[in-house]
Write a structure and sequence with these properties.
Elements (H helix, E strand, L loop, with lengths): L14 E5 L5 H10 L3 E5 L2 H4 L4 E4 L4 H10 L3 H9 L4 E4 L1 H5 L1 E5 L11 E6 L10 E5 L9 E5 L4 E5 L4 E6 L2 E7 L2 E4 L10 H13 L1
Parallel strand pairs: 1-2, 1-3, 3-4, 4-12, 5-6
Antiparallel strand pairs: 6-9, 7-8, 10-11, 11-12
Amino acid sequence: MTNTLPLPSAGVPPVIGVLALQGDVREHLIALAAADAVARAVRRPEELAEIDALVIPGGESTTMSKLAVLFGMLEPLRERVAAGMPVYGTCAGMIMLADKLLDGREDQETLGGIDMIVRRNAFGRQNESFEAKIDFAGIADGPVEGVFIRAPWVESVGASAQVLATYDGHTVAVRQGNVLATSFHPELTGDDRVHAYFVDMVRAGL
């Protein structure tokens, strides 16, 4: 797998990394490229320093946090998030961006970035995965498609966080400043509008 996918259009696009420690990295690279960003896999701190923004993919959040420590990425990631780098987390990525976590391992690390409490695996086990249409504030042309796989939901948000979408009474998309998180995986559906929304966030900050 190459680290950079070709751009579909001309211009000066933002450089957006996908944290490539675990999870559905390639699908995010493809979705970001379709949204007119330069998409790069990021595994090391020196690669993190070369990007404008970052996507944290789905996967297994406890494994992802351990690998972030192992690869020396945890503190550099925290520093970039705290400094205002735009970040988008899906599923496990949402867990990584939560200030507080329920049903996590005692030694599980998060990056923080959104004033929210997230419950791991809240929508059920692997065999209870499902796809749903989600009304997403700020995205036009109807509901977005989302795949929920051992997905978390947001138990509560602080005053600084904005709820962008709910499903079955539970918050499944949140934004706080430059940080965006969804419980679901839009990258698995071919619907690139959430990625385009994030790329617009990044462009607005450049």
